[in-house]
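Work Package 3 (structural annotation) set out to generate three-dimensional models for the target panel prioritized at the project kickoff. During this period the team completed the workflow that converts sequence records into discrete structure tokens, so that structures can be stored uniformly alongside our sequence database. As a representative example, we reproduce one entry of 145 residues exactly as it appears in the project archive.
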Amino acid sequence: MLSSDKIIIGRRELAALPDFGLEQVKVKVDSGAYTSSIHVTSCFEKADQLHVVFLDNKHPGFTGQEMHFKKFRTKKVKSSNGEVQERYFVFGTMIIAGLSIQTEFSLTVRKGMRYPILLGRKILNKYFLIDTSQKYLYLPISITA
């Protein structure tokens, strides 16, 4: 995709993640992160499945519903503070700025953070340019409407 074909987004946007049952989730654009990540309250393996609860009760989209994934992987990742962590990764669809994108998310505890999703370079490089002087350029997304 040429730069002229990319969509301009602000430093903050709203997204829906229909595979995870989430809508109108605040996203922080993070050009320093390679992979996108999403906040989880709970994440563990049991009976060859990954059991995940996304977000927490401080976020409007929190449902407390436990999701199950048969397809997942683990990988060592260096966090923003330089600490190496083993993280789970799952694939899901993100709808942002009018695009529906199938992408991979690392699952991490972002407790106390204002933005439960970080949008990394893996997506940014393919689809978007960032205007850091702007935020919330696109209307909220509803997956239930």
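The chain has a mean pLDDT of 91.
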